[in-house]
């Protein structure tokens, strides 16, 4: 799954990835959690744009906001069929901006947070879906992050990981008129482990309210957990 991630890359660097899209200042965040608003790129009214979206997808037909807490992730294997995600997969795909994510490894001393980045420590885009709900008292636009099987780097930590889209897939992923569902499905694969890096970090990240740079600082742990 993907339950916490970071976005600390300077806004200018992100803007350079999406020329022509206005990107507002994005404050660095070291512990992004479900129910928060997260930074995304989407297509709305046939125009690509930046959007802050509630993390935890609330289907357009839902009449209870709480359903979003159960839909922070969508499984790649079933995203085309699940009623909550089916329509969004067809027409409302988005990119979730990130530069690292956390996963927890079981150890004799409890769950150890591990921080996963690209080897160059640069930003990347996770595959997401977004939805607009107008049935609630307060309309809300929300999103989910698609997960897939873990690659060999992640497998000792967790059996799932977020889908990190290749850059050449960004354009069709964002295009609501691109309807080759089989091609889109094929993009929902584990990222090449050779491009990724992982390290143990402070357990301060366990606290949702804690959002400081030391969340991502490496820590020393038992030898059997060394990577």
Write a structural description.
The chain is mainly beta. It has one domain (5-225): hypothetical protein yedk fold, CATH 3.90.1680. Helices cover 11% and strands 34% of the residues. The protein contains 4 helices and 12 strands. The protein has a 5-stranded antiparallel beta sheet, with no helix packed on it. Strands 3-4-10-9-6 form a 5-stranded mixed barrel. A hairpin with a 6-residue loop joins strand 9 and strand 10 (140-149). It is globular, with a radius of gyration of 17 Å. The two termini are 21 Å apart. The model is unreliable at 223-227 (pLDDT under 50).
Short description:
Helix content is 11%, strand content 34%.
Distance N to C terminus: 21 Å
Task: List low-confidence stretches.
Answer: 223-227
- What is the count of structural domains? 1
Outline the biggest β-sheet.
5 strands, antiparallel
- Average predicted confidence as pLDDT: 95
Strand order of the largest sheet: 2-1-7-8-12
Number of DSSP-assigned strands: 12
- Residue share in helices? 10-25%
CATH homologous superfamily - what is it? SOS response associated peptidase-like
Q: Which fold name is given in CATH as the topology?
A: hypothetical protein yedk fold
What is the CATH class name?
Answer: Alpha Beta
Give the amount of beta strand, in percent: 25-35%
CATH architecture: Alpha-Beta Complex
Number of helix segments? 4
Work out the radius of gyration. Answer: 17 Å
The helix-strand sequence is EHEEEEHEEEEEEHHE
Keywords:
single chain; five-stranded antiparallel β-sheet; globular; five-stranded mixed barrel; 34% strand; mainly beta; 12 strands; 227 residues; hypothetical protein yedk fold
